[in-house]
Amino acid sequence: MDLTGMRILTAPTTVEHPHRVTYHPETDTEPWRLVAHCDAPVGAPCRLWCAEGCEEDGAEEHAEHELVDQGQCITLEWLRLSDVEDFYAGPDLTEFHDGPIRTFWDFDGVQWEYATTNPTSDALAAENGDQR
Ligand SMILES: [Zn+2]
Ligand SMILES: [Zn+2]
User: Fold this and answer.
1) CA distances in angstroms from 120 to 32, 61, 117, 123, 128, listed in the order given
2) pLDDT (tens digit per residue) in 59-96
3) pLDDT band at 12 (very low <50, low <70, confident <90, very high)
4) CA angle, 118 as apex, 110 and 40 as ends, to 5°?
């Protein structure tokens, strides 16, 4: 699946915060890492896309296309394009931790912050459809 240029809305979903991260501390053999998870059920908005191969929802015909479950979470696909922490857009942290996250779209793709914090201005702008 080619995600280049794809723009879809992941929020609001039917599950309040279907996405979360787990923090895995450094071990003797591996550096620390952050892993993203999706708990949304089949058919949830973050798993839906059309079967026509559209690359963005701005495509003229796309509004007419039926959205079908893709068998996986598209938001997580985005987060797997690099290290999960690379897409973090919340306030400065001393360390990542486990917790539910809020995802939103900026111009280049998906961003996230912890759902336990107040939405940053970027998240609010994205929810309001303001693609700066
Ligand atoms: Zn389409
Ligand atoms: Zn998801």
Assistant:
1) 26, 33, 8, 5, 12
2) 788 989 999 999 999 999 999 999 999 999 999 998 99
3) very low
4) 50
**What type of residue sits at position 44?**
A
Distance, CA 4 to ligand 2 centroid (Å)?
Answer: 18
Q: Write down the domain spans for the chain.
A: 19-127
Token digits for 92? 């400065």
Distance of CA 79 to the CA centre of its chain: 6
Query: Could you say which ligand is closest to the alpha carbon of residue 7?
Result: 1
Å from CA of 28 to ligand 2 middle: 32
Question: Could you count the other beta carbons within 10 Å of the beta carbon of residue 91?
Answer: 10
- CA–CA separation, 107 vs 104, rounded Å? 10
- Angle at CA of residue 120, ends 4 and 22, nearest 5°: 70
16 C-beta neighbours (distance < 10 Å), count? 10
